[in-house]
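Lab notebook page, bench 4
Experiment: in silico fold of construct C2
Operator: M.H.
Input chain length: 152 residues
Purpose: comparison with the prior construct
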Amino acid sequence: MKKTVADIMTTNPIVVKPNTPLQEAISILAENKFSGLPVVDDAGKLVGVISESDLMWQESGIESPPYIMFLDSIIYLKNPARYNQEIHKALGQTVGEVMSDRPITVEAEQSVPDAARIMHDKKVRRLPVVDEEAKIIGIVTQGDVIKMMATS
């Protein structure tokens, strides 16, 4: 019998809200040795995920889009709108300004192999576990899958 996500997930995960100061979220990540945190609204509904890769913009900064000057006009060689998101992440002061707002999720009834496949295909290290109302009920990580494999 295949194990489900509910069998290996961590229940009641630590979460942050979009208005949480970024420095507070960074401290939570560092103190708990987490690679990411679910972001929920006041009702507990999942609205995003903040991860180490989201935070890299804070340290690395951004480069301006390539452009050329022609007759006192700036002509961008790449779409400058793409850089708006990078600028927002690099300058963000709250979780909501930096988080990824399209989290990949699983449900508790899904099989562990399904969750592992999603993590592999989407190149994510953790998956928030949500109920039918998109409220967070747990989180499953690559480490949880590895621990299950070790005990099988």
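Observations: Strands lie at 10-11, 36-40, 46-51, 67-70, 73-76, 106-107, 126-130, 136-141. The mean pLDDT is 86.
Next step: discuss at group meeting.
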